[in-house]
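Re: the multi-chain job from yesterday

Posting the exact lines I submitted so nobody has to dig through the queue logs.
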Amino acid sequence: MPDSLPPPSWGSAPFDERDLDAVLSGETADIADALRPVADTLAALRAPGVPAELSGEAAVMAEFRALGRGDAARPAVPATTLQLPVIPAVRPLGRAARHRGRRRAASRARRQAVALIGIAVTVIVLAVAFAGNNLLGPMGRASTASRSSARPAEGDPASPGLQARGAVTERPSPARSAHATPSRPSPSPSSSSPGPGTMCRAYFGYLGHREPPGSWPAESPLLRELSQLAGGLSRVPGYCGPYLRDWFPYGGRGSWQRYPGAYLGTGDQGNQPQERGPGQPGQDGPGPGYDGGRAH
Amino acid sequence: MVGEDFTAQLAAAQGGSEDAFAVLWRDANPALLRYLRVLAPEYAEDIAAETWVHVIRGLPRFSGDEAAWRAWLFTTARRRLLDQARARRRHPAEPLDEISAADVPRAADAEQIAMENIATEAAVALLSRLPEQQAEVILLRVVAGLDTEVVADMLGRSPGAVRVAAHRGLRKLAALLSGAGVTL
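And the result, structure tokens for all chains:
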């Protein structure tokens, strides 16, 4: 095989990189024939503008004037005239700017909504707190009062609990007891029931006129109520002691311990009312059906 | 190209001369429209108008020669083009079956182009058949008159990649023209 044979063809390569660069640069004098149509096509792209491509000149010039680029053509204004900065009435925004504006508006709206919700929640909380002070306060006072009636305060002479704890240290004088007025309501099982003092005086007054002691029926509603107040039948004498103090100005409890249930267990030595303040027991006022039950 | 008068025309336009700005616009707008007609044929006019609005706003701050002016103009147009493409992706156009046949844009047929003189419109239609990146590189090199480095900077690619894309596009264009029966 002679060496002069041409190499096998792997496809036509009628132009090379330099030809392509020349076409791109518009240098078409020495390009390959295969690139001639391409060069003609690119030359057509470089051709001067046709009227259709220049039809928008008026609109662009109007934009140019509107955006204040024609300062040189503006008439001069007197020096005394106040010149305010020119703000374009409508500035066409690009799409990106419009989207940014929408995003900012959305985030601004979210912040405003959160702030409004926060303010509303704050107002509601304050309103509830204010109403709570007005409404819950009396309730709280009522509950305190109910607690004090259900569980007498420390030193309450009508308090069975106080008597049971033996916190009494001084016995009041009959004179003071006679003129004392109750400072707080006596515990009563119900609002329609007479006071404990009245019940105590009725009970022990009745017993004082009947012999032998203990004839009082145990199932009497009055005794049952007193037993409930005192915490048991055996505690009734101790419970009623303060209310009957003026009955026994000199006597200890021995004079009334003989009545039913009137025994004091161990540790009841201090089961006497404590003097406290101006209020003293025994002044509940007459109760219906129990008036005049005082023993003399 | 404006040529030697470019600097004077630019300065006058920046000073507010409408005539000077008209010179710049008449020189650049045809190339801008051809670039946009290949890449976004349905929105070329709108994008061109938005581009000029941006250019007019930034005109007082511009400084540079004619190559820089063209690079700025086409960079601005390309950004508007990308914004428009993003908007189209978010809001897709209605399906073609709901558009009348008369309104459907038709790509130019290569054979028909070969039978005609290679006019500007036919050249634009032919470039539209190239892959977008190759067509854009050729347009920026040929229509905008930018060199390889400037195009590479605009597109965020290396000059070598730009050159390769341009060559591939030209080869494909030559193949299209050859297949259309254009004399080689």
